[in-house]
Automatic annotation (TrEMBL):
Transcription regulation keyword on record: yes
Name the UniProt record assigns to this protein: Histone deacetylase
GO process annotations (BP): epigenetic regulation of gene expression
Keywords, sorted A to Z: Chromatin regulator, Hydrolase, Metal-binding, Nucleus, Transcription, Transcription regulation
Sequence ranges of Basic and acidic residues compositional bias: 443-463
Known EC number: 3.5.1.98
Catalytic activity line of the entry: N(6)-acetyl-L-lysyl-[histone] + H2O = L-lysyl-[histone] + acetate
Keyword Oxidoreductase appears in the UniProt entry: no
GO cellular component, one term: Rpd3L-Expanded complex
UniProt organism field: Papiliotrema laurentii (Cryptococcus laurentii)
Subcellular location: Nucleus
Broad class of where this protein is predominantly found: nucleus
PANTHER family to which the protein is assigned, alphabetical: HISTONE DEACETYLASE 3, HISTONE DEACETYLASE HDAC1-RELATED
Superkingdom assignment: Eukaryota
Amino acid sequence: MRLNDFPTFSDSPFFYDRRTISIPQQEQHIVQPHSAPKVAYYHPQGVGNYHYGERHPMRPQRLELTNQLVLGYGLQDKMTMHAPRKATDEELLGFHDSDYIDFLRRVTPKNAGSLANDGAKYSIGENYDCPVFYDMFAFCQQYAGASLAAARKLASGATDIAVNWSGGLHHAKKGEASGFCYVNDIVLGILELLRHQPRVLYIDIDIHHGDGVQEAFYLSNRVLTVSFHKYSADFFPGTGNLSEIGSDLGKYFSLNVPLQDGIDDESYISLFKAVMEPTITNFRPSSIVLQCGADSLGCDRLGTFNLSIAAHGECVRYIKEFGLPLLVLGGGGYRQSSVARCWAYETGVLAGVQLPDDLPPNNYYEFFGPDYKLHPPLTGHIQNLNTKQSLERIRMTIREKLRYLNGAPSVQMQEIPPDLMGFLADEERNKEEREEEEGNADAGEHRDDGKQKHNEWMDREGGDVANGRPIGSTKRPRIKV
Ligand SMILES: [Zn+2]
């Protein structure tokens, strides 16, 4: 172990890393008090039309159901609406291995048989959780493109909150698919934010551990990851123990809240707030990325928690109230009608609109029977195995770890050298992306030139992103997201 070679956070006023380029101070980018935050909503066109396969629990159609409820409630009048472009290869390579992206691009249901050996290498195919399906790569490009566009908009200061329900695929690894996730749009979005901001907080309320994001930033102290999830040896992905706290520079910058079946609204919300308040106060993030996997709701087909939509949404509201730039993403969720209700409700929370309980007429109205309400009863079906004592023990352990974040890490701030901003020749960028980079953007999602600036914040020696294989258990039970 090299623990003694590195200062812990509390030892040093600056956090050490290997970067050579600094960035302007953007720490004061806080939503103005008394003004409604600006919300930008990203929905890639046709993203609900993909199919993982007849019997597969992941249904992209839930994204269209969500969008229909959002539009049915008239929320488009309270937000800017964006149909983002697809992510380019270069953008995907900001995190993923080129051979892996190459495989994702090449493989089709027709040639999957002849590429089965490669498939096995990347955990993709009929024997894996991640099947090959028609236009799979386009699906990945769409949801990742949306998270990247949302992150760019947020980093530019052109919006306070950005939402992409098609994103949040937190299990994908640098060179491997996992748990229904192929490309990790969250890691890509966070890397985009890190080009402009010193610290990003990642919060994950999916029922599954946010292992792909944790792994990517396990060695970094610029991203603090916090995941609330069910943890047991036989539940996917099998990681997310309290003892996984990060390593090297990233020690104490990964937090895990391992829970048992049936956690109810009251326990979840009080633990969530008890963990998040000191985390945000101590880490002082420049922005927050919130993964809102809806498989933590009661009555999910794969999840075994007992949360109501109101409680899930209360976590979103609580984080919004901190007034920091906020990127909100989807994730798991395997009861389509619940997912759509939940994310529509949370869109309302973010847009500051109270939605009536009667669902509005929409193209998928019949999916929401028999009650046709926004808040159907979802709770009380599973016994709560979390005792007061076990939850208190988790709370105390995490608070203890947070003491090591005594004062936020800092980076030495300088002006961005002009030639860095000019990495892409001006004429290669369209007007929107130029404006976005200058901080007075409107939108950058229409660029289609296949170009992207080099990610200056990525340590060229790999210091920010873990290259290695999994943290904690390398034996992952292959069940579900
Ligand atoms: Zn999940």
